[in-house]
Amino acid sequence: SDHMENICGYLMKYTNLVTGWQYRYFVLNNDAGLLEYFVNEQSRHLKPRGTLQLAGAVISPSDEDSHTFTVNAASGEQYKLRATDAKERQHWVSRLQICTQHHTEAIGKNNPPLKSRSFSLASQGSANSPGVQRRPSQNAVSFFNVGHHRLPTGKRVPIMQPDHLVDVREMMSQAEGQQRDLIRSIECLPASGHLTSLDQDLLMLKATSMATMNCLNDCFHILQLQHASQQKGSLPAGTTISWLDPKISLANHFKNGAAQNFPAEINKPASVREEQSIAEPCQLTREPEEINPDEELEDICDDKEDDLGAVEEQRSVILHLLSQLKLGMDLTRVVLPTFILEKRSLLEMYADFMSHPDLFLAITNGSSAEERMIRFVEYYLTSFHEGRKGAIAKKPYNPIIGETFHCSWRMPKSSVATETGSSSSAHSPSEQVTLPKETEGPAEPDYYTVKFVAEQVSHHPPVSGFYAECVERNMCVNAHVWTKSKFLGMSIGVTMVGEGVLHLLEHGEEYTFSLPCAYARSILTVPWVELGGKVNINCAKTGYSASINFHTKPFYGGKLHRVTGEVKQNMMNTVVCRVQGEWNSVLEFTYSSGETKYVDLTKLSVTRKRVRPLEKQGPFESRRLWQHVTESLRDGDIDKATEHKRALEERQRNEERLRAETETPWCTKYFLKDGDGWVYHKPLWKTVSAAQTQQTDSN
User: Fewest beta carbons less than 10 Å away: which of 310, 441, 626, 647?
Assistant: First the structure.
């Protein structure tokens, strides 16, 4: 109560996507438990522009920066606020939390618990029944019941033994299930009438019950940590604790990739229990694995997303979801319904951008720096069409941290375009510097191999790293992408933050590039994908650059999927090539010589990627990790797919919380942090450089 002071001052408040952030004057009224704001300090004597009841509210510092925080009221209203610095944010957050706790506890004291009954709605018969005719003095909470259990007075609580943690987890699971039933019962109430789902008391009950369960989960994890700290002194060095089941091996439990081993619930299928509890030793290692391309087989999966299917049937669910979103809201932490998912991970989607390896390999065969830049632009613009699976916009699985995807392509050498007047096997002397061969092997294959690996290197923010190389052609590409999604009303926008670099080692050239934004339009009817924004491609060594504009369709008129661009020689400030057309249809390249070239993307040959069979994949490889979700979606069993998806997400949250509590940093498997980006741990440019040094020393 010493800290229950009324504070006031200016904060920035996020209004909407159009207006953005605006300064507003905020006043914390501790006596009334209200957070009010005004246009400015001078208008403080007027009626507030907005007011939030703090009882039952949740005050959350944002992890996107050190200045932002949110106030989530029990009514469902939210204020997104930003202080001038971290110190001011902490001051506001601490005072708001104290006020919130005080008024929430006051509600509890004024509303003593009822007699124990089961979790259920009161009988709702006809309009004349007592259960429906709500008296003014009757609190909505009385229509529900939360069981209360008191310990016998005078009895001391025994010290928690390791085996008892299993019992606690089971009771927690039961309580969580009852809390979900309570929420579901409230949400099933009609929108109008004597007792509605928007009743203020019921909204308060939803908020406080959820806060109670979160508090209990936090307490349970404290018990786990206490148990672990007690055991550390009696265990060998390097041994860690398997939290709940003492029969499971303790070794390597805290290593990255490990999951908490919760007791299997009888009513869950074995596949879900497997997703929630990793028991295979190979899943606990984070050592890089060398994938043998000979073990990979041509992919036979062809999951086109051309059928609305469940999206059409579940429109009411989409409407309910949209009703809870605000313009500009960050969707990174929003759990979207399973039926809008594609049957592949985001990591595999990045691999599908490489479905024209012949165009990729042809870049380094360009006879001049100008031709190589134009070839790269051609490959770049043709990659997005095949990256989409069908005409319907669906969302790939969000990769969990540590998830990986491996594949490769085999491209006949005769299919790769070469420079004018040379054969596909004509290589320059510098190209001959490749990895040293220990022994004379079999005859050289008549195809090139392009290898690809992707890894989810961060969960918050969600960052993916991917790398592809062709050793025979001395070329590789390394990229990292942070996907930021926002709600835009009738569409969803995804910004691809990051950078890629194409290395042509034969020529000593590096091409940096970025990625366009993506938009899912018409999400209530037939959702479709649109690309938008300006991207740049630059080669510092040659002085060539490309500027590409992906045009979004204007409100009136205009074409869909339009793209324009130009390739320039920066030193001379001359345009050497212009491109226009549609990124998913026909592209027209016009060169400075006056020649014109048309590329019909719908007729380009697609090379199927090669992937190891599921039984040979590691447990954290995308297809094996998501196999049960994918199978359920193919079978049209949305409920089962949701159950498997939830199990994976819950496991990830538990691991993340455990790492935070034990201060165990996450270690990536294939990618290393490099400044603001991520780089493959064994890139081709380092390998070739080492080979060149070794060859020079031997001479």
Answer: 441
Domain-embedded: residue 144: no
Do residues 289 and 282 touch, judged by C-beta distance below 8 A?
Answer: no
DSSP code of 223?
H
Taking every pair of Cα atoms in the chain, the longest distance, rounded to a whole number of angstroms, is 100
CB 695 within 8 A of CB 432: no
- Reduce the DSSP state of residue 681 to 3 states and report it: coil
Q: How many domains does the chain have?
A: 2
Q: How far is CA 372 from the centre of its chain?
A: 34
Q: For position 102, which CATH number holds?
A: 2.30.29.30
Is 357 strand, coil or helix?
helix
Domain boundary, last residue among 80, 108, 136: 108
Q: Is the pLDDT of residue 648 over 60?
A: yes
Choice among 179-188, 231-240, 630-639 with the minimum mean pLDDT: 231-240
Domain of 454, in residue numbers: 297-368+385-416+445-527+615-687
Residue that is last in its domain, among 84, 108, 132: 108
pLDDT per position as a tens digit, 30-85: 888 999 999 999 999 899 999 998 988 888 888 777 889 999 887 778 899 999 88
pLDDT value of position 328: 63
Tell me, yes or no, whether 678 lies in a domain.
yes
- Interatomic CA distance for residues 34 and 73, integer angstroms: 10
CA neighbor of 355 nearest in space, from 599, 582, 608, 583: 608
Omega prior to 461 cis, within 30 of 0: yes
DSSP per-residue codes, 154-196? TPPPPPPPTTHHHHHHHHHHHHHHHHHHHHHHHHTS-SSSSS-
User: What DSSP string runs through 282-313?
Assistant: GGG--S-----GGG-EE----------THHHH
pLDDT, position 313: 52
Residue found by looking up tokens 């070739």 in the block: 688
**Residue 446 DSSP label:** S
Q: Confidence band (pLDDT; 50, 70, 90) for 192?
A: confident
φ/ψ of residue 432, rounded to 5: -75, -10
Q: What is the mean pLDDT of residues 628-653?
A: 87
How many percent of the chain have pLDDT more than 70? Answer: 68
Q: Has residue 690 got a pLDDT over 90?
A: no
Q: Report the C-alpha dihedral over residues 229, 230, 234, 239, rounded to 10 degrees.
A: -30
pLDDT one-digit tens code per residue, 359-407 = 999 999 999 999 999 999 999 999 888 766 555 667 888 899 999 999 9
- The label of the residue with tokens 């319904």 reads 337
- How far CA 656 is from CA of 157, 646, 678, in Å, comes to 31, 15, 20
Is there a domain that residue 360 lies in?
Answer: yes
Tell the residue number behind the tokens 């961060």, with chain if given.
458
Output the CA angle 353-355-357, nearest 5 degrees. 110
Quote the DSSP letter at residue 362.
H
